[in-house]
Amino acid sequence: MKKTLYIILSSCLFINCTSKENEIPDTPKNSEQVKNTANYAFNLASEPEFQVGANLGINYFNDITVGVLNYNSSNIKLITSAGVETITIEGSDLKNMTSTSSLLKPSVVDNNTNKNAIDYNYIGLGQIIKAKDNKIYGLYHGEWHDGTILPGNVPGFFASIGLSISNDGGKTFSKSSTAVIPNIYDKNYNNGYADGGYGEPSLTFNSDSTAVYSYFVDHNRTGKGVNICMAKFNVSSTGTPDFGNCFFLDESNNFTQTLFALNK
After folding, report:
1. CA angle 143, 147, 151 (to 5 degrees)
2. Is 224 helix (H, G, I), strand (E, B) or coil?
3. CATH class name, domain 2-256
4. DSSP for 23-38, written as a single string
5. For residue 26, how many other CB atoms are within 10 A of its CB?
6. How many angstroms separate the CA atoms of 63 and 46, rounded?
7. pLDDT digits (tens, 9 = 90+) for 207-223
8. Which of 4-8, 49-53, 193-197 is the most confident on average?
């Protein structure tokens, strides 16, 4: 689940765009504010790709998103994963990233006694959102490795999606010990392949900030191979996302809490 991160210089890097220059954008507070929110265009540049943080010896990143903790004219701070842990990368601009630090480590490192932890062997946090409660939320990709090997010598895994929360502006993040997007299968399910479970999550608010949508990958392989799926979490009137109740998008484009094989 790791690959070298290359970024094309374009505005599409920034997952949550804002007219403010120095922080993660706040969510719109009402429908009128949504109407007044500026529109942004994403322009793909033709400039050659380059590896962000190559000078820091960072080679492996998660397959999905990059979180933006800070972006202004003199500082960029990103969240992604390298090796088996979640890290931050910081610098003056994308071509001058000068420091990196560990943010979240897999449970095999910080709690080796919990061998059933969903992030026992790997934890990758990327895209993040800031809610009206001033907390920063992210969904992480956790892995339990079963000893098999995928092409490219990548460890075989059962993936789960957990929740990370920061109460201090992104300096530290907590992590849930259980999955917030439940799966009808567990790590003991043998689908005949070296990958399984749900992983590679991204998340965003809907247009009026009454719900958080998550897009993720289903590796269960129960009929249609590996697919992209969608889940929803409602947001309370105070602006706090309810990650305790997950709704799946079914084949009729309705959200349901009924667990089912998403690939069928």
Report:
1. 85
2. coil
3. mainly beta
4. SPPPPP-SHHHHHHSP
5. 16
6. 22
7. 999 999 999 999 998 87
8. 193-197
